[in-house]
Design goal:
single chain; elongated; 56 residues; Spo0E family sporulation regulatory protein-aspartic acid phosphatase; Spo0E-like; mainly alpha; HLH_DNA-bd_sf; Spo0E-like_sf
């Protein structure tokens, strides 16, 4: 996955998470938790890519 595309996806997912949280009103809502976990996976992927870039 290209770096800029991944960063854009992270930014978009972050906005979606904020909207969902405002809509649901609770960090414990299952949909908020799922969206947060999806964002976590994207962020981890970004870190892994950065780490690989430093190694090469």
């Amino acid at each position: 996955m290209e770096k800029d595309t991944l960063l854009n996806q992270i930014d978009q997912m972050r906005l979606e998470l904020h909207r969902l949280l405002r809509q649901k009103g609770s960090l414990l809502d299952p949909r908020v938790i799922e969206k947060s976990q999806q964002l976590d996976r994207l962020i981890l992927l970004s870190y892994k890519q950065k780490r690989q870039a430093v190694k090469t």
